[in-house]
Each structure stands twice: as C-alpha cells, then as structure tokens.
Amino acid sequence: MAKLKLRDSDLCWRCHRSKGTLLHMLYDCYLTQNLWKTIIGFVNKVLGTKFVQNPALCTLGIGVREEGLTVQQTLWCRLALSTGCRIMHVKNCHI
C-alpha cells in the first residue's frame, strides 16, 4: 500500500513495528496470533483434528486435505480459515 501511495508508511498498521508485508499482516503480526490460535483450536475441537498453526494452513488452507476429512468437513475447515483471513484483511484495529 505504501508503494501505491495509499499509506505514508510501509509499517504494519496494527503493530507499527514490522514491515507490513501480506504475510505479516495476515499471520506473522503478534496482534493476529491469538485469533489464529483460537481458530485452529476451535477447528481441532470440532473436527477432532490435530492441525498445527502455521502460515500455509492459516492463510492458504494448505494441509487440510491431508487430515482425512470428509468433503463437508474439508469445506467447513476451509471456510473457517478463509473467514480468519477476511477478518485480518478487513479489520483495521487490534484483534
């Protein structure tokens, strides 16, 4: 956004400490970690899975199919993860 002159600074608008790359904004920022921990914990509890929180799973859904889930469970899990990404993208405040 800073390169497009939409923001004055290239720092993360949540923590104002690190460069606001897409990966940082969606996953790495310490202010987003609690939400991902909650989402992964909820998915594991509901589906009986043992997903480990990582950026590939949280931001892209990579690894969901390897858990041996049904088609409906896989779709629900991806919906939960994509909802987390949408919250990170839209919410311009501390989570």
TrEMBL record:
Protein name (database record): Reverse transcriptase zinc-binding domain-containing protein
Q: Which domain of life is it from?
A: Eukaryota
* The species this protein was found in: Amphiprion percula
